[in-house]
Each structure stands twice: as structure tokens, then as C-alpha cells.
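#structure-requests
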Amino acid sequence: MTAWNQPAREIAAFMRRLYQRGLTTTSGGNISVRLDAITILMTPGGTDKARIKAADIGAMSPQGERLSDFKPTCEAEMHLAIYRARPDVSAIVHAHPVTASAFAAAACPISNRLLCESYVILGEINLVQYQTLGSPQLAAAAAAAAGKYNCLLLQNHGALALGSSLLQAFDRLEVLENAARTTLICEHLLKAPAQLLPAAALPELQALRPNPPPADIPQP
């Protein structure tokens, strides 16, 4: 466990940060980090997210074998399936931010074209059709949807962000919620139509994107 101490502390700290930022609930959300080819660290199920500690973080193999004594989250297979589909991903943050989750429930798109930050950091956002939480069907659907996207909305469930690091995955989740709030205000509350980023500016912004998916999505 010694080799896992620092990453486990970081995972616990980011999980508490998710809760403190109002991006998830006491019992909701989970985080995982791929340490190497045989070890994935993950938050457990049934743990108070406001008080989670490094000692609570568990380890699993990519095949789902427990490498430490802990109760895996019910979404463990969703994380593992995404790692198998995306060898470039090293961290996954799944949470239930209210505004983004509302868009997911409504199957309404969140715009990444209202703010430069959203366009650069998020890329395109994919919607995963509803599947029961913790089910093999959800794991398979999320893994398939993540093939070319770093941000997912899980219909009637929540949101999920991928990254090459834990910080990047957390940042994407936080920016996704901000993009949802901006979309709500600009496209659904304000009377004046929102001004999208000009099409001519998009290639320059695309060049700023860190760690794009293996095959980037054609832009409108």
C-alpha cells in the first residue's frame, strides 16, 4: 500500500473537493486513477464523500479483481470498461452536478460553443442513453460512448469526465457544470439570443486542446 499512499491521498482530496463544491452528494459519485497496467485505485461504495480518507481508497485490477480489502463502488465496472476502451485515459471522475445532470435528464445538449474555455477543455460532449446505475449495460454503453469523447452525460443519472491526470478529469467535470449553467442562462433564460464562438475561430481553439481523444470528432 505504501506505493499507493500519495495517489490515494489525492483521490480522497479530490472526492472531498467534489462534495464541497456541490458537484456531488454524500453518497454519490466516484473517482478512479490508473496507476499502471495492473493497478487501478478507486473510491469505495457507501462512504461519506465529505470525510473520505486515503485509507478508504481501494485497488482493483483492470479485470475487476480486488487488490485490497475494500467495498468497490457499484460503478466500478463502468470505470474499468472505460479504461479498457481508452488506453490513453489515466483518471475518471463521475459525479452528479445539478445543472449538468438536469440537462442529462432532459436529454438536452450542453453547448461548448458559448465560452472559449468550454470549447478548449471539454471538446464535444456525448450523451449516454439511460441504463440502470451499476449495471453491465451502463458500463458497456459508457465505454462505447467514451471512445471519441472526454465528457459524457449519463441520461437520468449524472456526468463523467476523463483525463490524462486526476486534475484534468476534475477540471473537465467542473467546466462541464459551468458550461451547463452558461447554456441554461444564455439559451433558456435570457431573451436575447446567445452569440456562439465564430466558426473561423474554432480551428485555432482546437489546437489548444490538451490530450484529445484518439480520433477527434469533426467540428461543425
